[in-house]
Amino acid sequence: MPTSELSETGQRFMIQLFEQTRDDQSVQVSMYYIGSLLGLERDAASRVAEELIGLQMIEIKTLAGGIGISATGSEGRAAETTSSAATGWGAELPQPDRENGTSTTQSRYTITNAPPPF
Predict the structure, then answer these.
(1) Beta strand spans in the chain (E)
(2) Average pLDDT for consecutive 10-residue bins of the chain (118 residues)?
(3) Is 116 domain-assigned?
């Protein structure tokens, strides 16, 4: 998916979702939690999530607001990080350090810190 199809907030939402799920499609996190990390109110977080669901970048996991990164969203991140320009949302994400098994940038949030989705 070309980055140009995502709004700036959508790109930031995807970055945060990727960071929280570590690109694991089986992990779910609250769309409201992701929104709160970006300073968004619940309604705004819902609108951004709906935009990304419509673009098939994320999937609904629960009716209470649980979402996860989709295969398309994961592929979009991979395509952006391997492009020569590397200017898309994936270019800003933490990259693994293969020598010691850690990330070169650490998130200050973890999925376990997520508040309940309701």
Answers:
(1) 29-30, 58-60, 66-69, 96-97, 102-103
(2) 73 95 94 96 96 95 94 76 46 48 43 48
(3) no
